[in-house]
Amino acid sequence: MLDIVILVALPASGKSEVRKYLASLSPERCRDELALGETVQLDDFPYVHLMRRIDDELRETGHPTVFFHSADKPFKDPIEWGTLIELLNEDHARLVARAPFRTPSAGYLILDRIDAARAAVGGGRPLGGIPAAVRAAVAAGIEAEARDLLNKLEEAQPPTLEGKTVVIEFARGGPHGASMPLPAPYGYAYSLSRLSPRILERAAVLYVWVTPEESRRKNIARGDPNDPGSILHHSVPLDVMMNDYGCDDIDWLLSRSERPDTVRIEAHGRTFDLPLARFDNRVDKTSFVRNPRERWQDEEVGALHEGLSGALRTLAGLRGAAAPR
């Protein structure tokens, strides 16, 4: 059974739909048919959304934004790809320790957590330098969404991770037409290397495979302007799709590995050969999951389940190759 599955792909490839489908299955079906325990899920998208919300609140006060030049542009500083991984590392550590968030202000805590994660990857603490009155206004403005995120993270903490599979979702890439290797902090080579040893020691990678062109098409199709914070219905701006997700480095990583069906990651003074399997979604098998459960068709469910079963059982068979050195 897989302990940790790192679920990666270009935006709108079907990652979040896969997570929703897995969460709909009984523990018995997960175990017997997919080599998974009951899933516990982590995702970095809520932090991207909160970064955009922080910038929204800063604009309201007349203060310069920190993360984005505007709502439809990429990060000002690509170091934020590392910031997001550090936040996932912290979420995973809290999951293992069952550590609650004890704070009177979720908004202030998110500001502090983002600053600490950014500092950990060499990006400094820009939110700490904001004038106190502006900082208070920003914290108040994001309080409800920040509290909702913290509550969901706490609710996801099971009494034990024994028999569970932790699914960690994120998307990475680089500019359209970029040559390989992608320079840090772009791409999966960098972000995988920033994951904690505790994650890398037990992880396998499930890659949802679509073309960049299909990713862009599905990104437009799923967008709901009334639900921009939703993992299933948010739409990534076109400029971001072309400059941050115009390609990715999974094929390059696979081609460089000395072991078949693995990606080699040098991190923390060690070598990790992470098993990787592709779930082929180039012919769409996942979009139906965004519909209400009663509208799912048997043939759609069957095609998705068969594809996931093949990829995940392959990963379970490859897991021995993940031993760190």
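That was protein one. Protein two is written in the same sequence-then-structure order:
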Amino acid sequence: MSDKTSRIERRGLAQPRRLSRRTLLRGLGTAVALPWLEAMGPLARAATEGAKKVTPSRLAVVFIPNGAHMADWTPKEEGADFELPPVLQPIAAFKRDMLILTGLTQDGARAHGDGGGDHARSAASFLTGTHPRKTHGADIKAGVSFDQIVAQSIGGRTRLPSLELGCDRGQLAGNCDSGYSCAYSGNIAWRSASTPMAKEINPRLVFERLFASDDAADSAESKAKRQLYRKSVLDFALEDARQLSGQLGGADRHKLDEYLTSIRELEDRIARSAKTAEQGSPELARPDGIPKDYKQHIRLMMDLLVLAFESDQTRVATFMLANEGSNRPYPFIDVHEGHHDLSHHGGSEEKQAKLTKINRFHMEQFAYFLDRMKNAREGEGTLLAHSTVLYGSGISDGNRHNHDDLPVLVVGGGNGTLRPGRHIRYSKNTPLNNLYVSLSGKLGAPVESLGDSNGRLAQLD
């Protein structure tokens, strides 16, 4: 391995236990960013000149399709002493980390004379706060989304300004909902009014993106050699890892070892899932490596998201568990009907019970993500304490297609800017966009207005 490819990019390593946050372990075509280590503390504090925050704030948005069964979502009690209803019970361990926000409305998702298309509008307006143009042609128009507003302000501090993930393929053309383009149903992140941010659904490609060198030629060569010799990205960076480990204290060496082990294990899981997909029956095979198992797919993507945050490769991410209007069945939880079909329950208790099972399944995966975030130590806190995690949908009751009283959670400490552990009920038709205006300032990307916002949302801190 040449000096060029084996060199650790670092500042201040001449003195033991001093390490830049931007340190990379380099190898042929790879660049492995590191988690927060104790050795980074002194330089981080010096860089912020005594500021209180030496850890970055992060934003993650997790989107669910087709609304929620609100009777099993909304707590009866307000304040801190609330009982978790059935849908929220899977995240009981995070009760003191969450804000349940009831009564918020996304007016941009309403018809406003455009007739049908509530699913497309609900996704397109969820973070943009705009009423999308009704078209299934190339002249799509929504607005800059909240996550991209934040990314435009703080994204330049990381290798990836933002990361967009999902489990369903997106389309930029076609009629997906009553005359609305598929671009609306399959995207919640918008860089401009006419440019949605395409999401990645293949775990293997996300992994390559996180650990590939910025040199495209080196990256291609590395990938080819790894496939030929069945090596991990870490195999190319072992020399740098050994050099770095010898300059760290015991706690940092242990954390570095755990971190590198988690990368190798994740890489192995992705490889196994890809192999299983390729060996499936012809009608189910996914030769591009996308897992057939939906739960496995979700968790791989969530692990990659946590890894991207932990290594500070991005501070802004969105994750669509499914495209809006998804009619995916859930036979593995004994729900064989399509999700969208069930959401039009017509008052059927049986269908509503199945909706609750789907909602709980999604919440169980969210609990997995929160657990990973809370167990990732960073400085004097955790990734979850330093993050703002928004979970919700642009539809409330799928049977009525209403866009008021939306299912919305905010989880995490927001780097000390939020006071979680409460259920807050707002007055009818309080704009969801007020939440975004409030959070944007807390994330270091202040805006005065977004969509129909009429102020900041009270009681968050």
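Residues 29 and 215 are 7 Å apart (CA to CA). Keep this in mind for the problem set.
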